[in-house]
Design brief:
By secondary structure, the chain is of the alpha+beta class. It has one domain. The chain has two helices and six strands; from the N terminus they run H-E-E-E-E-E-E-H. It has a three-stranded antiparallel beta sheet with strand order 1-2-3, with no helix packed on it. A three-stranded antiparallel beta sheet has the order 4-5-6. It is elongated and about 70 Å long. The termini are far apart. The mean pLDDT is about 85.
Length: about 130
Amino acid sequence: MLVIIIVLSFLVFFWVTHSVQSESLLVIPTVGVQSSVKYVCGREDQFVSWSSIDDVIINEVIRMNRVLYYLTLLVKPVNQTTIEAESIKLIPLFKYTKPRLVMLEKIYSELQNLLTETQKGDAAKGSGDIG
């Protein structure tokens, strides 16, 4: 009986301390994207540099009888010598709060605009006179 009480109290403690309060996304063009998850006790941050972001997609996941949508960053491999399809890393954003598709589409379009503007800027810098 004591073991059951200890296990249940541990599970309740774990559930309370690992409950997600909020998720946020900080985008600084040409620098990177930081995804933050705030728990009841603490937070977790993940940073992806702008140069390593290949693309951003809305990923569709079917789970049981539900369709879930995740905003996902496609990250280039660190080692550029062997670029293979399976070497691209997927980083899902907003895994816990699961915003609706309409909200994800707004964030997606803003991120896409920023990515294409930076890629156009890089292409414009690359063409022209050397000097």
